[in-house]
């Protein structure tokens, strides 16, 4: 396994769920949802800004910020659902699904790598 692939794997399968779990520990308040939404917009904007640059650093930075936008969007949706659901069992399932959803970008990268 190449170094870049190993880094992407660790970031996706360790960093993503860990970051999402930390974000889901925040209170389910409106200001948290607004901050997460602004984080998604900011991370996506930085990814778009880095995209036309040349070099492997800007490419990895663009992919990393796009991944961060994905994790923040998943956490945003989970927080919004947890805010609406009062019963603890569905809230637990929302948390589990959100943690699993943070790993989905890896499968897109792996599929794209297989096609090359």
Task: Give structural notes.
The structure is a single chain. This protein is mainly alpha-helical. The protein has five helices and no strands. It has one domain. Helix 1 (3-24) runs antiparallel to helix 4 (88-101) and helix 3 (56-84) runs antiparallel to helix 4. The two termini are 16 Å apart.
Could you name the ranges where pLDDT drops below 50 across 5 or more consecutive residues? none
**Strand pairing plus helix content: what structural class?**
mainly alpha
Largest sheet, if any? Answer: none
Radius of gyration: 15 Å
Shape: globular
Number of domains: 1
Number of continuous helical runs: 5
Distance between the termini: 16 Å
What are its keywords?
116 residues, mainly alpha, 5 helices, 84% helix, globular
How are the SSEs placed, and which strands pair?
Layout: H1 3-24, H2 30-50, H3 56-84, H4 88-101, H5 104-115
Helix pairs in contact: 1-3, 1-4, 2-3, 3-4
Question: What is this entry, summarized?
Answer:
The protein has 5 helices and no strands. The protein has 116 residues and is mostly helical.
């Amino acid at each position: 396994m190449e170094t870049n692939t190993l880094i992407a794997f660790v970031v996706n399968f360790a960093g993503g769920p860990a970051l999402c779990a930390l974000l889901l520990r925040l209170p389910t308040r409106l200001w948290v949802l607004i901050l997460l939404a602004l984080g998604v917009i900011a991370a996506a904007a930085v990814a778009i800004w880095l995209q036309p640059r040349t070099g492997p650093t800007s490419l990895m930075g663009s992919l990393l910020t796009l991944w961060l936008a994905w994790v923040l969007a998943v956490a945003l949706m989970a927080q919004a659902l947890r805010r609406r659901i009062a019963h603890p069992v569905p809230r637990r399932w929302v948390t589990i699904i959100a943690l699993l959803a943070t790993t989905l970008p890896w499968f897109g990268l792996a599929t794209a790598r297989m096609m090359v």
